[in-house]
Amino acid sequence: MKYYLIAGEASGDLHASHLMAALKEEDAQAEFRFFGGDKMQAQGGTLVSHYKDLAYMGFIDVALHLRTILKGMKHCKEDIVAWSPNVVILVDYPGFNLKMARFLHDNTQIPVFYYISPKIWAWKEGRIKDIRRNVNQMFSILPFEVEFYEQKHHYPIHYVGNPTVDEVDAFLKANPMDAEGFRQAAGLDSRPLIALLAGSRKQEIRDNLPRMIQAAQPLTTAYQLVLAAAPGISNDYYAQCLQGANVKVLYGQTYHILRYATAALVTSGTATLEAALFRVPQVVCYYMKTGRFASLVRKFMLKIPYISLVNLVADKEVVPELVAHQMTVKNTRQHLLSILPGREARENQLAGYELMAQRLGAPGAPKRAAQQMVRILLQR
Q1: Largest alpha-carbon pair distance within the chain?
Q2: How many Å apart are CA 180 and CA 263, to the nearest integer?
Q3: How confident is the model over 285-324, as pLDDT tens digits?
Q4: pTM score, two decimals?
Q5: Which CATH class is domain 166-360?
Q6: Where are the extended beta strands (E) located within the chain?
Q7: Please, which residues bridge with residue 89 across strands?
Q8: What is the CATH number of domain 2-161+364-379?
Q9: In the chain, where does the domain assigned CATH 3.40.50.2000 lie?
């Protein structure tokens, strides 16, 4: 069968690539065409457009690049219709993908599957109407989404497990512990690591990374700072944010960094789950220039008590969240100090991680999703 996938950022590219690998196991005749990235391209098929060409965040960035975004959307619609796949699989990226779902529902007979739900349980809950109308099947990767969709909105979904569990599990099996080998290959010294994961978009990085560095800088006598660089972000851009600080920047080494890190400063997102699954105590940081106003608006806009996936899955505060005006250098440093070895907060986080992992379930999410997708398509 022919599968058309749309992923709009680095994490979507990663998860979609594993789904593609699983689909090939279930369907020996699988053909792929996609909007995505390098990891999807490595699975074969045709890369129509790279996600970095459309990855804009925030009202201003979107407004400045609106012509590019609309052109990309038009090209995607035309390409799908011309190729006529058996299914279109949308991967997160709701601003773009929900518009594609509406177009496909209104203009074609192509079924729409959604893998990794938009976070409508956090904001824009009204999008459930679009999902109910335009999405044929939803494949969820977060356990609390089942209650949200099925009990609150009476929309049946498939919980398949979380692909990050698979990705971390596969990495640990394929990479035996070799701290000294990693240090030598990465050009690191013998000091323990503090990992910096500052997001995958330029705006996130610009807003958060300098503050992370300032918060951790006094610890650099005993620790070394290592930045897990996002694909698609140039070294020159990172250099502007680092402003000469002594931080080791490593590309394509996020899991290696987390495996050997003592603690981490993490911008909210999938990275919070990754750090937790590697059992790295963390402080979740998400600075916004609007500061106190953003914090005030958050109370009215967000429908959830937490912003990190770790806390949402555990249904309690496992990791501290410093959002908007709360993410000051002083607060970040204070929380970072509290999760270093020998501190009670560190042990509490590690215990909370076990609860979170239990709720996420066992590895096998891409395989379970692929099996269900192929079965549903064959029954049509």
Answers
A1: 63
A2: 18
A3: 999 875 444 444 445 455 678 999 999 999 999 999 999 8
A4: 0.85
A5: alpha beta
A6: 2-7, 31-36, 46-50, 87-91, 112-115, 137-140, 158-159, 193-197, 224-229, 247-251, 261-267, 282-286, 321-323
A7: 5, 113
A8: 3.40.50.2000
A9: 2-161+364-379, 166-360
